[in-house]
Amino acid sequence: MELKNVILEKEGNIAIVTINRPKALNALNSETLKELDIIVDELENDESIYAVVLTGAGEKAFVAGADITEMKDLTTIEGRKFSVLGNKVFRRIENLEKPVIAAIHGFALGGGCELAMACDIRIATEKAKFAQPEVGLGITPGFGGTQRLARHVGLGIAKEMIFTGRMMKSDEALRIGLINKIVEVEKLMEEAKAMANLIASNAPIAVTLSKVAINRGMQCDIDTALMYEAEAFGQCFSTEDQKEGMSAFVEKRDKNFQNK
What we know:
2-enoyl-CoA Hydratase, Chain A, domain 1; Enoyl-CoA_hydra/iso; 10 strands; alpha/beta; 6-stranded mixed sheet; lyase; 2 domains; Lyase 2-enoyl-coa Hydratase, Chain  A, domain 2
């Protein structure tokens, strides 16, 4: 499948994924979601990539939402299929072994906010704006908003955002814990790539196991979660990178991880 709406670039050990529909404010239609799915396949199978930056093209939007032009005439069955498709792709991003950083400028509304929440870390500019405005269109959030938002910001704030559909600026998003950091517009990609490269400088297997343990632990009781952690910790001692990292520390030299 030829990719028309999503761009994949690679710089060393990091990948940059760009939603490229600026004239439509990077709105997510079925075609774009399917292209994202293809890119996740490639990232999963590329052992040279250790971290990913996800962003939107243009000056106005990260992703302004799902494509209303496509959605407006859907039947009940078609609407459910569209939601299932979006949730499938976003869940794959959430479970991708490589950490994903959302670099957000402009509108991150509806499906855009949901896409950002499926990423591990969110960096936004001071001009970023966030909302789950679906109820104003007569629908519910359909790409994970009713589930991930409460996990990020708490039940009360999530219900307020979804029930009112109101838009918030990046300073409020930072205050409630929806994003990690605010940067100047011209420094957004520089900051996102710097963080991705910092992640990529660590032992890739250890980073992956940490992500898996965190994600699993959020879905279960603390005792089960600590068992996941102990399993991940133990697995690290079967890797060459653990031996390299600890030897380099003891020998006071630079480490050289090989993703092994």
